[in-house]
Amino acid sequence: MKRVITYGTFDLLHYGHINLLRRAKECGDYLIVALSTDEFNSLKGKKSYFDFQKRKMLLESIRYVDLVIEERSWEQKREDIKLYQVDTLVMGDDWIGKFDDLKDIVEVKYVSRTPEVSTTKIKSELKEEIKI
Ligand code: C2G
After folding, report:
1. Cα(27)–Cα(122) distance, integer angstroms
2. 97 C-alpha to ligand 1 centroid (Å)
3. Which of 31, 36, 106 to mutate for ligand 1's pocket (most ligand atoms within 8 Å of CB)?
4. Ligand 1, closest atom to CA 113?
5. Can you tell me the distance from the alpha carbon of 77 to that of 83, in angstroms, rounded to the nearest whole number?
């Protein structure tokens, strides 16, 4: 059983997130998503539209996702990888290189982001539409 983990906020869930989750699941048999808590989001300088419980419920409804855990800090990855016996960490390539320090205990894979979509872009385009 090959275990994969990925981390993120996954706010306003969109097809870019789904592409990432599908690609992460393709790397193994069991996918854990460490979902940023609302408190960690503020540490990341992000305010999500949906709170943690709603974002968790959405992720848990996705066929590629086997388990959702909390992401409460930048530093927890090493501990998560050991605790959940993770084989592969998968992140979008906007994070390329950022988690290479974990290569001593896990395979690290950066997969290409879905370029044209982002939560930020959705929010700003909706704002523009409402202005007109
Ligand atoms: N993603 C993607 N394509 C997009 C948007 C996002 O592939 N168009 C990927 C990101 O690269 C990331 C994942 O989807 O791997 C989640 O993205 P975010 O919710 O924006 O997560 P982020 O804020 O990058 O948090 O400790 C790591 C952080 O928690 C990652």
Report:
1. 29
2. 14
3. 36
4. 7
5. 10
Q: Strand, helix or coil at 57?
A: helix
Scanning the structure block, which residue is given the tokens 């090493």? 78
pLDDT digits (tens, 9 = 90+) for 71-112: 999 999 999 999 999 999 999 999 999 999 999 999 999 999
Q: Is 92 within 8 Å of 6 (Cβ atoms)?
A: no
Residue 84 token pair: 């959940």
- Two tokens at 95? 């994070």
What tokens were used for 79? Answer: 């501990």
Pairing of strands 88-92, 107-111: parallel
Residue 26 alpha carbon to ligand 1 centre in Å: 17
Which atom of ligand 1 is least distant from the CA of 6?
A: 15
